[in-house]
Write a structure and sequence with these properties.
With 417 residues, the chain is mainly α. 70% of the residues lie in helices and 4% in strands. The chain has 16 helices and five strands. The strands form two sheets. The chain has a three-stranded antiparallel sheet. α2 runs antiparallel to α14, α8 crosses α15 and α14 runs parallel beside α16. The protein is globular. It starts with a helix and ends with a helix. About 5% of the residues have low confidence.
């Protein structure tokens, strides 16, 4: 029996343990945080059954992925690049909108976010470029150009609808280039260019966007849209989410009011997240005993870390944070055992992708960053994101399998010699 389980759950055992604990935290906390969904659907068990089924499907995807030899990932790259390009363009022109963001595609009854597919595809492609252009003294100077030709168009298309995801993906690619020994001079120039670009985008957002952070401005804009519709020029179409971005920046930049002056109606998400955190204590209120889940929008997704803190306390929040840190550490260990460059860069890239997104989510939940709408990987309720994140874990496990085999072969050869 143990041998059969060992054959099924192959790869790095520590990564499997981290994956297991994150899935268990997800099932418990999403069940607790889905009170709003259960109230709307009048089905107490339905939302958690759906989420548990999604996780089970994700585990199956991880098992299938880990059984794919790492070298075959290279063959998949052109097809994934084509799918990513087509779907990213599709979502811009015919995407399903939720609020003011059109990030989803509905196809054959399924809804998915193309950006989730594109993230892993870009990491896969960058890992290949870095591996192919490694020299004895580091990466070839032309490596930077090829990576930018792949990354910039993808980040541009993603950023039009989801700026935070584009920024996160670019940060992952930048760190991969640093790990891949791309010349420091090129990375320094890129850092300067990023600063200039960020300033430009902020200026455009402030010029084009309208601050909807207070109810009067939002009501006035709503009335204007209803009674006086006006056509948008090319810049306004490109920055059609500028209103949302500007509101988030303005909210984050404003001085925090005292508790007595705080208006729960104007900034409910941040307010109830703060209440959840300050009422937690060291060990929390206990699983399923959150009170803010009934008032906090997206408690089961974007702000689930606040619910984790409320129910499991500072200690539970630290444990969850540690799981992501250990995941990145294990990816680094796996990469260090790889004899070839491609699997090493792939493992590090996917590890960075998961951990940086988790960091963004946790920083938003505790008020250290503006609201970005990033779910907590492998914990937040989701469809596409959950399954694809499980595929990332499967790819990391696949790399760990090949690295372990090569290490064992090297030990046997050393003993024989």
């Amino acid at each position: 029996m143990n041998k059969k389980l060992g054959n099924l759950f192959k790869g790095d055992k520590v990564v499997w343990m981290i994956f297991f604990f994150l899935c268990m935290v997800s099932i418990v906390e999403v069940f607790s945080a889905s009170s709003g969904l259960t109230y709307k659907s009048q089905n107490y068990i339905g939302p958690i059954v759906y989420h548990t089924g999604t996780i089970v499907m994700g585990v199956l995807v991880a098992i299938i992925t880990l059984n794919i030899p790492c070298r075959y990932f290279k063959l998949m790259t052109p097809f994934l690049m084509l799918i990513s390009a087509v779907t990213l363009l599709w979502v811009l022109f015919a995407g399903t909108k939720v609020g003011d963001a059109g990030r989803w595609i509905s196809l054959f009854g399924f809804t998915f976010q193309p950006s989730e597919i594109a993230k892993g595809t870009i990491v896969l492609a960058v890992a290949q470029v870095l591996a192919a252009m490694q020299r004895e003294d580091g990466a070839d100077k032309n490596t930077f150009k090829w990576i930018m030709r792949i990354t910039v168009p993808a980040c541009f298309l993603i950023g039009l609808e989801n700026l935070s995801t584009a920024a996160m993906l670019f940060a992952v690619v930048y760190l991969m280039m640093f790990i891949g020994l791309v010349p420091i001079r090129q990375l320094a120039k890129l850092a300067g260019g990023i600063i200039v670009f960020v300033v430009f985008v902020l200026c455009m957002v402030m010029l084009v966007g309208h601050d909807n952070s207070n109810e009067e401005a939002e009501l006035a804009q709503t009335e204007q849209v209803v009674t006086q519709p006006k056509k948008k020029n090319a810049i306004e179409k490109m920055f059609h989410r500028a209103d949302t971005w500007k509101s988030r920046i303005m909210k984050f930049g404003k001085p925090k009011p005292s508790p007595q002056e705080y208006d729960l109606d104007k900034d409910a998400q941040v307010a109830h997240a703060n209440i959840a955190i300050v009422s937690s204590g060291v060990i929390g209120k206990g699983p399923g005993k959150s009170t803010e889940r009934d008032f906090l929008s997206q408690a089961f997704s974007d702000f689930i870390y606040a619910i984790i803190i409320e129910e499991l306390g500072i200690l539970g929040a630290f444990v969850v944070l540690s799981l992501y840190i250990f995941l990145l550490y294990r990816c680094a260990r796996i990469a260090s055992r790889c004899e070839n460059n491609f699997p090493a860069f792939l493992a590090m890239g996917l590890g960075l992708l998961l951990v940086i997104q988790a960091t963004f989510n946790m920083m938003v939940a505790v008020g250290l960053a503006p609201v970005t709408g990033q779910p907590l990987p492998l914990i937040s309720k989701g469809g596409t994101s959950t399954i694809i994140n499980c595929a990332y874990i499967g790819a990391i496990l696949s790399v760990s399998r090949s690295a372990k085999v090569k290490k064992e072969e090297a030990v046997v050869e050393a003993r024989n010699s």
